[in-house]
Amino acid sequence: MWRSSPRYSDPVLTLTDIRKSFGGVRALERASLEVPAGSVTALIGENGAGKSTLVKILTGIHHPDSGEIRLDGETVRIADPRAARALGIGVVHQECQVFDNLSVAENLFVHSHPSRRGIVDWRALRQHAAAVLRDLDAGFDADLPAGRLSIAQKHVVQIARALTHESRVLILDEPTASLSQRECAELFRIVRKLRDAGRAILFISHKFEEIDALADRYAVFRDGVSVSAGALKDITRDELIRLMVGRPVDQLFPKIDVAPGRELLRVENLGRAGEFEDISFTLRRGEILGVYGLVGAGRTELAQVLFGVTRADRGAVHLAPDAVDAGVALVPEDRQSQGGILDFSLAANVALTNLARLAPRGWYSRARESSLAREWIDRLAIKAHGPAQVVRSLSGGNQQKVVIAKWLARAPGVLILDEPTKGIDVGAKAAVHRVTSEFARAGGGVIMISSELPEILGMSDRVLVMRRGRLRGEFDRASATSDALLRAASDA
Amino acid sequence: MNWLARLSDASRRDFAFGALTLALPGGGVVPVLLISLLAGGFLGAFNGLLVWKLRLPPIVVTLGTMSIYRGVIYLLSRGAWVNENEMSPAFTAFPRLELLGLSLLAWLSILLVAAFIFALRRTRLARDLYAAGGNPHAAEYSGIDAGRAQFIAYTICGAIAGLCGYLWVARFAVAYTDIALGFELSVIAACLIGGVSIAGGTGSAVGVLLGCLFIGIIRSALPLVGISAFWQMFINGAVILVAVLLSARQRDRQGQTLEARA
Amino acid sequence: MTPGVAGIFARRWLRWETMLAAVLVAEFVLFASISPYFLDVYTLSDATFNFTERAIVALPLAMLIIAGEIDISVAAIIALSSVSMGLTASTGAGTGTVVCVGLGTGLAAGMINGALVTIGRVPSIVATIGTMTLFRGAAYAVLGDRVLKDYPPGFAEFGQGYLVGPVSNELALFVSFALLFGVFLHYTRWGQAIFAVGANPVASRFAGLAVNRYRFALFAATGLFSGLAAVLLTSRLGSTRPSIAQGWELEIISMVILGGVSVWGGKGSILGVVLAALVFGLITFGLGLMNVPGIVMSIFTGSLLILVVAVPALLGRLRLSREANS
C-alpha cells in the first residue's frame, strides 16, 4: 500500500510563528518547528507547554489564530482531520483511537473505505489491510475484531492506519505511555523502519530513555514558545531538562530515609479471578513500597481491591487496628476520569473525600470547604487562582496535586498511588515525590505503583515485582537494580 | 450512541403524522407514497438537525417532538376520524395487491429488509454509523462526520416511518389522532431483542427482523391462547426488560474479559 | 445556588432562575390584564391544582437527573399506584389502607427501577422505557377498559381539601416538600454527594462515595413521590382508569429541565424547579382559560422542552463563532 519515498534533506513540515489561544488563555505563542524527512524529531516540553495543542493544529482539530504551516515548501491550511490526512499527515494519538466493535481491517480504513459510489469494496479493503500489516510485521490477523487486541497492538493499528494514506509526516503523541518494555521495542523497530523509508516523524514523549533511543533531533517548547531545537547528539540531558523547565530541578526524587515502624497492612494469598492470584506482602509505617510491573500485570486491579472498589475472591487483607479508621486511600491512574471531578471547583474536589468530617451532622458549609482547600493549596503549592477555580482549567500536574490533596486531607493510614506522575511535567513530578516522602515520614504507609524504573528505584524502600497477576520477586533498596527488576517483570 | 434505536424512536411520531396527511388527499397511489416518504423524511430530518447541529440529547429531542407532532396532527385534523369511505379504493387496495401469492405489504417489507442488509454492510454511511456508535471520540478524531451520518439516519427513519404511516392507514382504512400510540415501544423492543446494542456500535438488519418476528408472533398468539389483548403492552415491557438485562450482562462479561487481557 | 460548581456556573444558573422569575411576573401581569378575576385568591388557588401533583414528582426527579440518571416511568407508576388503590378500595378497605397501598406501590416500582439500574447495570433511559411499558401495561392488563370509582368517603380530602383558607392540601404538601428537598440538596453533604455522582460517577466512586446506594435511594424516592402524586390525583378525580396521567412523564421532565437542571447531570437547583413548576402551571391554567384542548398543550410542552435545551446550545454556538471571528 505504501511505497518507500526518497530521502529529503529539506524539512518536510515547517511551522512558523504559530499562535493559538482559547478564550483568552494563550496555548501557543511564536511556536515554530521543523520536521525533516528521514529522521525522528523529539518534541519535548512540560505539560501545558503547548505540545498537544500543536498536534491538534497539525491534525486539523484546532485552527491556528495566526502563523504559517508549510508542507514541502508550500503554505497549507488544515481545515479538519480529513484535510490533514489528504496532506499526508498521520497521527497516533495518546489515547487509543481504535474502534473495538469493528475488525482490524476496517479500523485501518475507517476514514477512507475503498469504495465505488459509496458502496464499500470489502475484498479490496481486506487485501490492502493485510498488505499494510504484513509490511509492519504485525503479528495479528486483519479479520480479528479490534476489541480483542492488546493496547500495544492497538497502537500498531493506529500506525498502520496512518500508513494507509501515504503519510509523509507521522506524529506519535506519547505512544508508549501504556506499553511494556518489549512492546516499546517492537514499536520503535517499526518507527525506525518508517524513518529509514524517508518519512518525517514527530515523536512526543516525556521519557528521556525513549528519546535517546529513538530520536535524532529535538525541539523544546516552554509555555507555548519554541525555545530551542537541534541535533540530539549536541546536547546533554541536563541541558534539555533545563531548557524544558526554565530552571534547574534541584531533586527529582527527594526520598527521605525513614526507619520503618510497626506493621500497618498485611495481605495474605489475595486473589481475584482473571486479574491476580496468590498475592502476599506486608507494609510498615513510614515505608514506601514500590510495585513494578508491566501494564496488565494486575497492579491496578490489586490496588482497587485493597482500596475496596472491587472485592477479592480469595485471601485476606489485615489493616493494623489503629489504622482501620484512617483507612486506605487510592490515587487512581486515570486522573481525568477517576481521580477528580473536572467540572467541580478545587475546593469541592478536596472536600469530596471529607464530607463526613466537614459536615458531621450533615450540614454542609461552603466556608469550611474553602478553608480546607486553602490549607492544601498552600501545603502542596497548587498553582490556582483560589479554591473556587474549576479543576478542568488547571494544568495536568496541578490536577494531580488536587487529587492527592483530597486524599491527604483525609489523613489515611495507607496511601496507594497508581502511576502518580504519568504524563505530568518534571516540576510537578518532583512536588508529588516530595509530598509522598513527607507522608511516609509522618508515619503513613505508601504503595506506589509505577512503570517508570527511575521513579521506582528513586523512591522505594522495597520493591515488589508483578508479572501476569503474580508476585515475581521482592527487592530491598540495595538489591533493586534496573536489570533485576526488568528481568523479574518480563517473561524472559 | 445507538443509531438503530434512534431509528425506532423516530418512527412513531412521524408515523401518525404521515398517516394523517396522506389519508386526506384521495389521488393516485404514487403521489401518496411520495408524499408519505417526504413528510416522514422531513420530520425525521428535523429531529436529526437538532441532534446534529445543536448536539442536543436525542432522548430529549425525540420526547419533545413526539408530543409536538401528535399535537400538530390534532390541529390539522381537528381531532376528526378519517374513514374508509373518504379514501379512494386505490388508496386502500394498494398494500393488499397480490403478487406471486404475497401481498404488496409483504413484498415491501422483504424489499426493505434486503435493502438494509445490503446497506448496513456495504455503504460508507452505515459503516460511519457503526464507527461513530462504537467510539464517538475516535470517530471525531478520524474525521468521520458522525452528526451528519446520524442526521441522514434520522431522515431515513422518518421517511420509512412515513411510509409505514400510509401502509397502516391503508390497511386498517382509518386514520385518527391517536393512531399507532405506543408503537415506538414495540419497535424499540424489536430492536433490542434483535441484538441492537443500546450503547451503540452493534446490531444487524437480520437481528432486527428476527426481533420483529418475535414481537409479531407473540402479538398474534395472545388471542389464540385466550389472553386478553390488554396484556400486549405488559408483555412488551417485560420483553424489553429481559432483553436489556441480558445485553447488560453480556456487556459486563465482555468488559471483564477485555480488562483481563489488557 | 449550585454547590460544588465554581462561581461562574453559580452566577449563570442564578441568572437562569432570575429569568424564570421574570417570566412568572410577566405571566401574572398578562393573565391579570386578560381576566379581571385572575388575581382573586380563590382563582389562584384553583390554578395551583394544574401543577402541584406533577411538581411533587418533579422534586425527587430533579435530584435524580442531577445525579445523572432519568426516570421516564413516573407517569406509569402513577397509573399503577392508582389502579392498585382502586382495587384495594373496591374490597372495602379504609382510607388509611388505600393510601398506604398507593404509596407502597410507588415505592416498590421505584425500587424496581433502582435495582435494574444498580444491580442489573441497565442504562436508566432504557430501564425506565421498559418499566414505563411494564407498569402501564400492568395497569391495562388488570383493569382493561373498566373504571374504578368506589373510594372510601374520607379519601377525597387529600386532593380536594384545604388546609387553611385558600391553601389546598396539595399546595401545602408541595411547598413543604420543596423546602425540605431544597435544604437537603443544597445544604447537606448528601446533597453535595448527589451533585458529585452526577458530575462524574466514576470519580465519585473512587472518592469513596456509595454511588449505587445514592442512585437506588433516588429512584426509590422518585417512585414513592409518584405514589404520593397518584394518591392526590386519584383523590381529586375520584376515579381510576389505566390511561390516568397519560403523557405526564413528558410534562414532569420538562418542568425539571425548564428549571435549569442539566440533562447531562451535575447541575441544577430546587429553586429553579419550583419556579419552573409555577411558570408551567400558570401557562396551563391560562391556556385552559382560553379553552385550548389538552393535546394542543402537548405541542407547547414539547416545544418548551426542546427550546429550553436548544437555546443554551444555540447561544454557546454563537459565542464560539464570535470568538473564532474576533
Task: Write a structural description.
The complex is a heterotrimer of chains A (492), B (262) and C (326). By secondary structure, chain A is α/β, with parallel strands linked by helices. Chain A has 2 domains: 11-245, P-loop containing nucleotide triphosphate hydrolases (Rossmann fold, 3-Layer(aba) Sandwich); 263-489, Rossmann fold. Chain A is 33% helix and 26% strand. Chain A has a 6-stranded mixed sheet, sandwiched between helices. Chain A has a 6-stranded mixed sheet with strand order 17-18-19-15-20-21, sandwiched between helices. A 4-stranded antiparallel sheet of chain A has the order 2-1-4-5, with no helix packed on it. Chain A starts with 10 loop residues before the first strand and ends with a helix. By secondary structure, chain B is an all-alpha fold. Chain B has 2 domains: 1-179, no CATH class; 182-262, no CATH class. A two-stranded antiparallel sheet of chain B has the order 1-2. In chain B, helix 1 packs across helix 8 (146-172), helix 1 (3-23) packs antiparallel against helix 9 (183-193) and helix 6 packs across helix 8. The longest helix of chain B is centred in the last third of the chain and has 30 residues, at 232-261. Mean pLDDT of chain B is 74; it is low at 1-27 and 255-262. Chain C has one domain: ABC transporter involved in vitamin B12 uptake, BtuC, CATH 1.10.3470. Chain C is globular and about 60 Å long. Chain C has helices at residues 7-34, 41-48, 52-66, 74-90, 95-118, 124-143, 157-160, 169-187, 189-199, 201-206, 211-237, 248-258, 270-289, 294-325; strands at 162-164, 167-168. In chain C, a hairpin with a 2-residue loop joins strand 1 (162-164) and strand 2 (167-168). Chain C has 326 residues and is mostly helical. Chains in contact: A-B, A-C, B-C.
